[in-house]
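re: that chain from earlier
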Amino acid sequence: MAIGEAPFDVGKAVAVLRARLTGGVVRLGDRDYDAARSIWNGMTERRPALIARVRDAADVIACVNFAREADLPLSIRGGGHNVAGTALCDGGLTIDMSGRRAVRVDPARSIAQVEAGATWGDVDAGMRRFGLVVPSGIVSKTGVAGLTMGGGFGWTSRKFGFSADNLASFDIVTADGRLCHASAIEHPDLFWAVRGGGGNFGVVTSFEFDAHRLEPSLLCGMVVYPLEQIRAVAGRFREVCAEAPDDLCCLLILRHAPAAPYLPAQVHGRPIAAIAACWVGDPVAGAHAMQPLKTIGQPLADTIQLKPFVEHQTMLDASQPFGRRYYWKSHFCRQISDGLVDALAAHSEQLPSAHSSVLLMQLGGRPGRLDPGTNAVGLREAPFVLNIQAAWEQPGDDALNLEWARAFWRSVVPFSTGGVYVNFMTEDESEARLRAAYSEPSYARLRQIKTRWDPGNLFHGAQNIVPMQATR
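^ sequence. v structure.
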């Protein structure tokens, strides 16, 4: 039941939970409640009755036991950046990990230990001093926990693998209130499942990642053209990706031009087609590989140069602020066909909001060569992922923006693999769509492991893999 339904005594529940925790508890109606429940996607309307600001693993254990004993909805907030708003639940308990953001680096072993409330910006800041990197996403405010447990890819993934591929071990509180350490040796089934299967199996309290040597400055940036040149830009993007070594990762971006200093004032607010790129290797070789991106007519801007990698990592942060309204639709794509380019052109010319964008990211490289059974990450062989990102400010514009994203998505179905990246799924996706995020053998194995570790489906707030004979 949710708090507020008889015979649940909310006052007594708060007293009991506060007595068990070293961290604080915020309840519905408290002065700081709205700030405590604030997450990235402003469309999320869920209102937990209690938000526990945990300080350590013992607090997490207390919260898990409390929610299980009281039969309460339970959610876990890490970075709070998931588009489906899974950090919050209605009428139940949210475990807020956002105060636990420590990053400890062991440069001698190339290991990073990361608390579960950290963002990738926290990790990058800790790693750069040692010339190390852990593969992450492309927005630095994204939470480590959610991105990693769903797979996690970004600028360095073609060279070094997905975030989940580089997860060496983790500590997790399971549904029965146990704190377990999982690795390839300890609880290997849980270790396999959490790396790609999301938050279905417990509350991860800390991660240990393998890190890789990386120069502090890399050749990276973006080349920008008018949207009218999208077919030429997409064609060149296709050509460069086809020949790209693992050192190169490219991203096609379609959007309205921001009021950025590197763009001429006369193009601010106008539709653009840009290719962002990052070279993880020798800059001289990178300059040669990236040169074709710069010669599609006269670019509006070219920011590709040797720069701090952490600067490139924050390039898209400003376009995705907390509190805006977001809705995504996504596909994996096998190739950039002419039909796909036609669909991209048609719908990008009709962006309903100045904040919306379309991202087509190059995948492949090392992740595609790993054994698909390495972990639960789904469909790692896909060479491209398309993410249609509707973003707007006012609730009154919901219908317009939702329909644009859905119509766009439907038009691209013929050019997709049929699969989807689990971290890009919104809350209205079906079970069939969730199954499409994994191979059938992997999904069946995930359900078996879910049944072993969480038979009562306590952890059902994220993209839920339902146990056999589930009670929820």
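Residues 52 and 322 are 21 Å apart (CA to CA).
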